[in-house]
């Protein structure tokens, strides 16, 4: 039987019941379930603020745009970022006409604080840290650099739903963290995301920015009833980036299962680790000691990645690669050659199947194939 990298697990009847409520009420848009989901997310994570969006990608754009306008950053100012990420993280910088500056990664595949320090200039305004696979890496050292220099920390927490660091949910100490609830993330909806600011004013403002700059949400206007529903003001040229109640309805259900699902992902990781123990051809990407990872990914490194990938595909096992070095893309060629660790990792990494339908027997089959085909 074929084993895919990701297969989302939806609690179908419960999701349909939540969606049914939206349909019966005649409320599928902003407000209603989106408010409920924001409250549930805050209660779950302990984060102070949360605003539900149509994706993580738009959240990263909003984060940068909000800070740029708030602090008067100029076009061309710099944001330090990683080449090992989904392009969303880096597109967000370009959307706001800022300059991505690529720093290298360490063995965790997250940003290396030494490389980050070497890239800081008097034009550095923010750092985008990606907690790859749910791992926190050496984030706290990068955060310390930000604090010393008044640089904003933007945590791309797309992989981090359910990641805890010393018992606290990821994001509690970032200026802003942005989560993804895209179809194959740990908390899958279809497409949506959450933006969580540290500062209460930023949370107020992002609610306007995500709804075209309008200063009241539709639901609040409807609830207030009567005349004057249309009497909102438009305070700035915002975007249409907010989430909707159908996605939030699915999110509310999926959130209940997130910890249980992540515990199973950690179990899968433990099985993979045990089965790879004592061999030299396969390097495992280590999780930081203080981090209880969401285990969005289980990544290994091998010398003959492309060959191994094809061999596994022959056996109907379909792993993934997270990610191709972004400086290989034409849009980010400016960073080419600056991040040798990321570049090498990009040719060696492989993400093994991680989802609720992978069994212990599957992990045994996968690891024995990997051991068979990995080169010395
Ligand atoms: C999935 C992902 C995103 C984008 O999330 P969307 O919700 O699909 O916009 C951004 N960054 C990383 C690291 C991701 O994996």
TrEMBL record:
InterPro entries: DegT/StrS_aminotransferase, PyrdxlP-dep_Trfase, PyrdxlP-dep_Trfase_major, PyrdxlP-dep_Trfase_small. GO terms for biological process: polysaccharide biosynthetic process. It holds the Pfam family DegT_DnrJ_EryC1. The active site is at residue 185. It comes from the Bacteria. The keyword Transferase applies. One of its GO terms (molecular function) is pyridoxal phosphate binding. CDD domains: AHBA_syn. Keywords: Aminotransferase, Pyridoxal phosphate, Transferase. The modification N6-(pyridoxal phosphate)lysine is found at residue 185. The keyword Oxidoreductase does not apply. Belongs to the DegT/DnrJ/EryC1 family. PANTHER family: DTDP-4-AMINO-4,6-DIDEOXYGALACTOSE TRANSAMINASE (PTHR30244:SF34), TRANSAMINASE (PTHR30244). This is DegT/DnrJ/EryC1/StrS aminotransferase.
């Amino acid at each position: 039987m074929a084993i895919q990298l990701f297969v989302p697990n939806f609690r179908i009847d419960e999701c349909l019941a939540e969606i049914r409520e939206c349909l019966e009420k005649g409320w599928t848009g902003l407000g209603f379930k989106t408010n409920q989901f924001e409250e549930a997310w805050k209660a779950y994570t302990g984060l102070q603020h949360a605003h539900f969006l149509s994706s993580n990608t738009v959240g990263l754009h909003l984060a940068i745009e909000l800070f740029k306008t708030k602090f008067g950053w100029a076009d061309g100012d710099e944001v330090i970022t990683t080449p090992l990420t989904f392009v969303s993280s880096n597109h967000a910088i370009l959307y706001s006409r800022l300059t991505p500056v690529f720093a290298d990664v360490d063995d965790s595949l997250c940003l290396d604080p030494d490389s980050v320090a070497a890239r800081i200039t008097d034009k550095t305004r923010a750092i985008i840290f990606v907690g790859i696979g749910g791992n926190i890496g050496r984030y706290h050292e990068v955060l310390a650099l930000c604090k010393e220099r008044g640089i904003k920390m933007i945590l791309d927490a797309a992989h981090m739903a359910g990641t805890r660091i010393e018992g606290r949910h990821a994001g509690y100490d970032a200026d802003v963290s942005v989560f993804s609830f895209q179809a194959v993330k740990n908390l899958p909806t279809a497409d949506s995301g959450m933006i969580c600011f540290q500062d209460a004013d930023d949370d107020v403002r992002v609610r306007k920015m995500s709804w075209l700059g309008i200063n009241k949400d539709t639901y609040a206007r409807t609830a207030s009833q009567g005349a004057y529903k249309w009497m909102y003001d438009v305070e700035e040229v915002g975007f249409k980036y907010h989430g909707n109640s159908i996605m939030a309805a699915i999110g509310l259900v999926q959130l209940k299962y997130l910890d249980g699902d992540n515990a199973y992902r950690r179990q899968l990781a433990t099985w993979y680790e045990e089965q790879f123990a004592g061999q030299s051809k396969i390097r495992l990407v280590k999780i930081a000691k203080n981090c209880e990872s969401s285990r969005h990914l289980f990544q290994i490194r091998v010398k003959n990645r492309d060959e191994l990938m094809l061999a596994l595909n022959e056996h109907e096992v379909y792993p993934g690669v997270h990610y191709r070095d972004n400086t290989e893309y034409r849009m980010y060629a400016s960073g080419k050659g600056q991040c040798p660790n990321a570049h090498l990792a990009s040719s060696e990494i492989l993400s093994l199947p991680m989802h609720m339908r992978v069994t212990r027997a599957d992990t045994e089959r996968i690891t024995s194939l990997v051991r068979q085909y990995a080169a010395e």
